[in-house]
């Protein structure tokens, strides 16, 4: 049986060959963690501009799918940790639905979030390195990080720039929330996936039944944006280039909100006060159709994070 010290040496060799820093918070349990709460505690006051936005993972179905092997050297280097199984994306049946909108193409979304993000709980150093469960957790953390790295590397080949995408995501976040606030379903349909549009349309209907109108404003610039997860979804087992990519972003903003009844009286919120709001949104894009663009495909509840 491999001793703990030999295990540690093997893992360090793997991290070096894969170009993953040993100080990674997910691999070696450093003090950084996605589960850390916001220091001012104000996120619980208003997580979005109306309560119907908070419904977990939007009920996206985790349909039965077959694994799609990713042929990469990074995946091969991880075979010792994966019982000779390589990293995989998920696969869905290819859709024949696609419609041309001007010079852009709107592609039918797979309709679910692949491996929805959840914060990883910290575990003590000794437990991580000197127990069977700790070693299993370390293996799982490495696999998650390698999936992220592979998806981002694939995306960069298409000309992806993190700073440029963050600006685009911030604009989309503001635009989509504004469209929801004014109830513009026609414009909203183009900015979100088919599944997400159905969810938002129902939320707008519920909100309009409770409030006559709402005021919503995002204070610019955005306080913080960071990528929490990157995943690929294959649609053709014979062509590894036919994939959708999903990027899960944490978006921290200051917002103003106020709701009115039919007489114009304020019944909720205060547009003179700024509220710090933390949202986790999942953006999706086809990587195999020229002219495809990013759309919102889901939101992840932050209530328990």
UniProtKB/TrEMBL annotation:
Principal location listed in the UniProt entry: mitochondrion
Top-rank taxon, per record: Eukaryota
Keyword flag Mitochondrion: yes
A GO cellular-component term linked to this record: ribosome
Keyword Disulfide bond annotated: no
SUPFAM superfamilies: NTF2-like (SSF54427)
Keywords for the protein's UniProt record, in alphabetical order: Mitochondrion, Ribonucleoprotein, Ribosomal protein, Transit peptide
Location in or out of the cell: Mitochondrion
Entry-linked Pfam families: Tim44 (PF04280)
Annotated protein name in UniProt: Large ribosomal subunit protein mL45
Species name: Clitoria ternatea
